[in-house]
Amino acid sequence: MSTRRDFIGTGLAGIAALTLLPAVNTFANVNNEYNRQNKGRLKLRFALASDIHYGQPDTDYAQNTGNMVKWINADHAKNHLDMVIVNGDLVHNRPDLLPEIKTKYLDKFNMPYHTIPGNHDFADAAVWQKNFGYEDKYTVEFGGIAFVLANTADTKGTYICPDNVFIKASLEKFKDKKIVFVILHIPPFKWQKDDVFVDCPETIELLHGYPNVKAIFHGHDHLLDGVRYTNNKLPHFFDSHIGGNWGTDYKGYRIVEVDNENAIYTYQVNASQNPVLNSNKF
């Protein structure tokens, strides 16, 4: 398994910029628990997991997928999760396996779940509608919080920008919401020359044009489990990976919590416990 990529220009910039979002934290403590300063009741708590790569040859994809469901259900039993979002690359170049991963694994979640395609799902709106009952771009509302989810690849796995007409219409629809989260498997911005992302300046302009857009969540790069910023302002969070044959040495997922004062907390969970993550608090 590959080790995590050097975070020069990424993690260090993120640490400096966290002062712009003091309610956001990046990692769990070593025991995978995070103690919030505000002990009050949460308005929303959800998990994000990505990059299962179900069906990839020479990987333990069945065990990895089963572990994901077990880990997140256990988290839910302990702390309650309102939902889980599976952010792309559910399968590995095998859209025919989408019905299997849905019925055999995802339907075993003990909380509502939402999905969005990644570049290895080889999916479009018709494929996603057939398998999950909704298209490859859609919105979810949870009280005063809204989610905008959109596809970032075509049926051949080519990276594409999200549908910006849809993004704009959705952000306009939710402009009176207190908080909007955007879910995109592939980031629409290249921070470094070797990033396996895609530059989408119109998307970035849209995301920065609405102050209630508080964070963007991505999968795709299995080596990333922290935060990067666009314009030193808007955080883009990553969640490592669940499966596949490369990435961080551990497998994990991300938790996001919103309290009744609309403060946002997020931390990465080292679910496989190998190795233990550094503990950081800002």
How would you explain this protein's 3D organization?
Strands 4-5-6-7-9-8 form a 6-stranded mixed β-sheet. It has a 5-stranded mixed β-sheet with strand order 3-2-1-10-11, with no helix packed on it. Mean pLDDT is 87; it is low at 1-27 and 277-282. The protein has a single domain, classed as Purple Acid Phosphatase, chain A, domain 2, CATH 3.60.21.10. With 282 residues, the protein is of the alpha/beta class. α5 runs parallel beside α6 (201-208). The relative contact order is 0.22. It has helices at 11-17, 61-79, 98-104, 125-132, 164-173, 201-208; strands at 42-49, 83-87, 113-116, 137-142, 145-150, 179-184, 213-218, 227-230, 234-238, 253-259, 264-269. α2 links the parallel β1 and β2.
What is the succession of H and E elements? HEHEHEHEEHEHEEEEE
CATH topology: Purple Acid Phosphatase, chain A, domain 2
Number of domains: 1
| Largest sheet strand order | 4-5-6-7-9-8
**Poorly predicted residue ranges:** 1-27, 277-282
Helix content: 10-25%
Number of strands: 11
Describe the biggest sheet?
A: 6 strands, mixed
